């Protein structure tokens, strides 16, 4: 005889894999047929998002971020591959049966409902008791700082407020993961920065896995625990922000994230000779590509010591940017290098336009790709 | 002068309303209270009994018209909503083609279209004749001259006026709202009931108004498809004006019909006022 299950038993189906991963994608491909041609929006994505992680999908427009997210939410079915949520294969499960919630790019708030009814929608669908709905909606509106606005209609609210309603509407259900598709895209810069901090605070408070889609590298770098940089339907690099920034795996990532300088040539004996200078690439031979971040480079008028990478050049541009100066330095071979210099002590600049200077940096700040 | 400009700009439309609505209405109101006949002329006698007499004689037709109008409107709603829904959400990039097809019958005159239905539905016509030939229907089966034929005709003729406003309101519903509802654990059916339907109600409201009023007042369908037993109030008004030349009775009937429809619309708007409808749907 079947046992009466107590209210808190875990799901009946045992997880396929015993992990604490919240979301797993395995070889996921999505093909669309448009105008009789097969288009691969996502070409084979494999990733594993941990419970409680703030995970970002970053990449230029059209690289397949939204498609990937819509497959996780269940609005699109993968053409190939498997999607698991908390170990359970959900590849064929419809969106209303998945324990994740989505914050849409344009919010998609129900225009005919008050803020309260918008936020309570999911709980009502799950047949939550009235008093619990009331308690949880109130609590959630307090978290997103909208107490007192319950009766408003979405159209009577500012963009930032609508954004917070959308967030509350999803979070109130205590999903095991929250999916956010460029949620701050429609806000102006100031509000966006404030909301970034706000989102991060809320995520810490509720401790839910966040999957965050953005094409804004700064946003991804400041908020995420890990970032998957996507290009043309594939993941180029999946790593924590610092590693993505310091050690870009491909020239695409190096170019897409922050400002970086790319130098390439043929190395002999661990040294790449370039236009009267040298770039130290210990242990490398043959064709190499080197990226150096602008803030790692020191700009001097004297020739630097011999234990660092050093290149001579001519200053072609100096831009004062408040907390730092940005220099453009032309090398002998015509390549232009960007250098950032902190305005730590005084407001004087090391060199002026037209000055001959030396650029130098420690060997560990060269990130070498290729052979 | 500045302040007057908007009113001056509105002047042509006010003139239009005055000349083509207010003046004829006033004339008709006056005629409805006169007595006399065509040969000797009509004189104003403030004969309010015209109304009582007309209603007493033709209340059956008035009630029948309202019944037919309401039934046809309900039928149009049942048929029209799914059609509008289908075009709006599944029409893809052929939407305008479907809308054009919908309006295509309007290139043929209203009366002609109705007469063609008369041919189609004739007792020994293409449809019934063939079916009777095959023995599917008994020889004395008929559709013409029944209330069904009239209501079907009304439904057919006014259907696009139901579909178009509903289509317009559905077209404006962002499909992502449906996805959002599904994401919040609503099934497809619930998502429709809680989101799409409430947002399309203004269109339904407009569609019902645009079809119920003309369908109730329509004389053509009853005349062409209804035989003798299904006369509607529109036919009576027409006959009183054009055949009997009893202008006061015809005017009184027209006014009565107008009053009934206006009251109906008012009550309908109050009971089903779009705002209330939307509130209710959000519960
Ligand atoms: N429904 C669709 N039909 C056809 N092509 C699509 C569809 N959705 C997305 N695509 C294509 O797939 C690619 C990835 O789109 P998307 O995931 O929206 O990119 P992102 O969100 O990174 O900007 C794009 O080239 C886009 O044109
Ligand atoms: Mg997108």
Q: CATH homologous superfamily name of the largest domain in chain A?
A: P-loop containing nucleotide triphosphate hydrolases
Computed structural class of chain B: mainly alpha
The share of residues in extended strands of chain A comes to 35-45%
In this entry the ligands are: adenosine-5'-diphosphate, magnesium ion
Q: Helix count of chain B? A: 12
CATH-defined topology of the largest domain in chain A: Rossmann fold
**Largest sheet of chain B, if any?**
2 strands, antiparallel
Major sheet details of chain A: 6 strands, mixed
CATH class of the largest domain in chain A: Alpha Beta
- Return the CATH architecture of the largest domain in chain A: 3-Layer(aba) Sandwich
Please bin the fraction of helical residues of chain A: 10-25%
The number of helical segments of chain A is: 8
* Unreliable runs of chain A: 1-18
Strand order of the largest sheet of chain B: 1-2
- The portion of residues forming beta strands of chain B comes to under 5%
Structural shape of chain A? elongated
Pick out the low-confidence regions of chain B. Answer: none
Quantity of strands of chain B, as a count: 2
- Kindly provide the radius of gyration of chain A, computed on alpha-carbon positions and rounded to a whole number of angstroms: 25 Å
Span between termini of chain B: 50 Å
> In which range does the helix fraction of chain B lie?
over 70%
């Amino acid at each position: 005889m079947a046992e009466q299950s107590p209210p808190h038993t875990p799901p009946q189906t045992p997880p396929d894999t015993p992990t604490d991963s919240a979301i797993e994608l395995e070889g996921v491909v999505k093909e669309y047929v448009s105008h009789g041609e097969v288009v691969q929006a996502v070409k084979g994505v494999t990733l594993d998002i941990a419970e409680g992680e703030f995970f970002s999908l970053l990449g230029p427009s059209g690289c397949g971020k939204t498609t990937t997210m819509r497959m996780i939410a269940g609005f699109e079915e993968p053409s190939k591959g498997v999607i698991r949520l908390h170990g359970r294969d959900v590849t064929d499960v419809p969106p209303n049966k998945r324990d994740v919630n989505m914050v849409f790019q344009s919010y998609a708030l129900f225009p005919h409902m008050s803020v309260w009814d918008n936020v309570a929608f999911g709980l009502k669908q799950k047949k939550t008791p009235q008093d619990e709905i009331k308690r949880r909606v109130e609590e959630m509106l307090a978290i997103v700082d909208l107490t007192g606005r319950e009766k408003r209609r979405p159209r009577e609210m500012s963009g930032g407020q609508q954004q917070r309603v959308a967030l509350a509407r999803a979070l109130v259900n205590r999903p095991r993961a929250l999916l956010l598709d460029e949620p701050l895209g429609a806000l102006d810069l100031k509000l966006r920065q404030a909301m970034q901090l706000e989102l991060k605070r809320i995520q810490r408070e509720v401790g839910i896995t966040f999957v965050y889609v953005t094409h804004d590298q700064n946003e991804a770098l400041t908020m995420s625990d890990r970032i998957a940089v996507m290009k043309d339907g594939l993941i180029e690099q999946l790593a924590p922000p610092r590693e993505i920034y310091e050690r870009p795996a491909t020239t695409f990532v190096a170019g897409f994230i922050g400002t970086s300088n790319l130098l390439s040539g043929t190395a002999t004996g661990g040294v790449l000779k370039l236009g009267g200078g040298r770039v130290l690439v210990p242990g490398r031979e043959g064709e190499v590509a080197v990226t150096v971040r602008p803030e790692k480079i020191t700009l001097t008028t004297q020739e630097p010591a011999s234990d660092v990478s050093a290149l001579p050049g001519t200053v072609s541009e100096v831009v004062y940017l408040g907390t730092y100066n940005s220099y453009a330095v032309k090398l002998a071979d015509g390549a232009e290098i960007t250098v950032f210099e902190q305005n730590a002590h005084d407001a004087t600049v090391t060199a002026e336009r037209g000055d001959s200077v030396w650029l130098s940096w420690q060997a560990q700040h060269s990130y070498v790709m290729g052979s | 002068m500045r302040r007057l400009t908007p009113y001056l700009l509105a002047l042509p439309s006010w003139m239009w309303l005055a000349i083509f609505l207010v003046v004829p209405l006033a004339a008709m109101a006056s005629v409805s209270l006169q007595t006399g006949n065509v040969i000797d002329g009509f004189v104003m006698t403030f004969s309010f009994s015209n109304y009582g007499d007309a209603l007493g004689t033709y209340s059956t037709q008035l009630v029948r018209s309202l019944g037919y109008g309401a039934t046809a409107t309900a039928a149009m709603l049942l048929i029209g909503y799914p059609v509008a829904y289908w075009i709006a959400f599944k029409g893809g990039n052929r939407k305008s083609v479907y809308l054009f097809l919908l309006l295509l019958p309007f290139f043929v005159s209203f009366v002609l279209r109705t007469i063609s239905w008369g041919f189609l539905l004739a007792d020994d016509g293409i449809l019934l004749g063939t079916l009777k030939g095959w023995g599917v229907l008994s020889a004395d089966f008929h559709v013409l001259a029944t209330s069904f034929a009239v209501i079907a005709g009304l439904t057919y003729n006014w259907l696009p006026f139901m579909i178009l406003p509903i289509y317009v309101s559905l077209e404006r519903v962002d499909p992502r709202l449906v996805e959002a509802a599904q994401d919040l654990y609503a099934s497809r059916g619930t998502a429709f009931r809680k989101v799409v339907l409430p947002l399309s109600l203004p269109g339904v409201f407009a569609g019902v108004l645009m079809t119920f009023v003309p369908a109730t007042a329509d004389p053509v369908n009853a005349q062409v498809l209804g035989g003798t037993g299904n006369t509607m109030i529109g036919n009576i008004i027409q006959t009183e004006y054009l055949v009997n030349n009893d202008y006061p009775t015809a005017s009184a009937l027209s006014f009565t019909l107008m009053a009934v429809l206006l009251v109906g619309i008012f009550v309908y708007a109050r009971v089903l006022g779009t705002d209330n409808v939307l509130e209710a749907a959000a519960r």
